[in-house]
Amino acid sequence: MKHSVDEAFGRQVQQIISGEVFFNEPMNRHASLGVGGNADVFACPENEREVVGLVGFLVDRDIPFYPVGNCTNLVVRDGGYRGVLISLRRLQGLEMRTDSTEEILLYAEAGVSLARLTEFTLRESLAGLEFCAGIPGTLGGALRMNAGAWGSEMKNIVSSVHLLAPGRKIEEIPRSRLSFSYRNLDLPRGGVITAALLALRRGRRESIKTRVEEIMAEREKRHPLTFRSAGSVFKNPAGTPAGRLIEETGLKGLRVGDAVVSEQHGNFIVNTGAARAHDILALIEIVRRTVKEQRGIELKTEIVIIGDEQ
Fold this sequence. Notes:
The protein is built from seven helices and 20 strands. By secondary structure, it is an alpha+beta fold.
């Protein structure tokens, strides 16, 4: 950081936000993989107003920052993150709204988990979000990576996104102005998603429940849920699932330290004990190189990798 993290800086941050502020925070406490070096600051604003204030404060001081949710698809290198990780997990607003056409709009803030969203839509008999059943993480992260499964993805149900761009106020961006692609939503540099409106429809509760249960059962059968992971490591290249490519190149079970390519699903890397970030990243590079050499296909990571080398 160009400005050191000292007591004065800490006091200033704590004047801006009412939530928790942690210094030199080990990210292995937060990441679903259980790995990661220390972040200079891990700050937890309580609402959109505090996010605006904190981002403005950091931009004015040229201090790097990165928004995170439940850190389910994040790897912070062992050297840690020099800057402020802004946790949006306290942004928990969730309510139904309708517009003039009587389409059901669900307002949800970025920190709401997909599990809570799925439970809410089931309770209210709202259809369209079933594909999110069993996906870990929060709405903000799901939007940022255009999460998807079972033939659907976030772009199909988004009506608008509340976006904070550095130096500006939060703006509601309609779907027509959002640039979605496979596992990605293009955002301005430093942009932070704080909430969204999801366009859903009325459905039959029993039908929704049945579909959610089917998806959950498939996830339990296919995915290594007994170990810590970050979900799918690689994006699927055109034509062939990444997991199948990894399996066909004989990489299931490959190990670096306690990081292992899952025997159950080739596109999962699991932490079987005390893996470090460098173990995970070394395994990722071996998989990428092997698939490239044997199949001529360049795998791109779906998980987000930030921070410094040790």
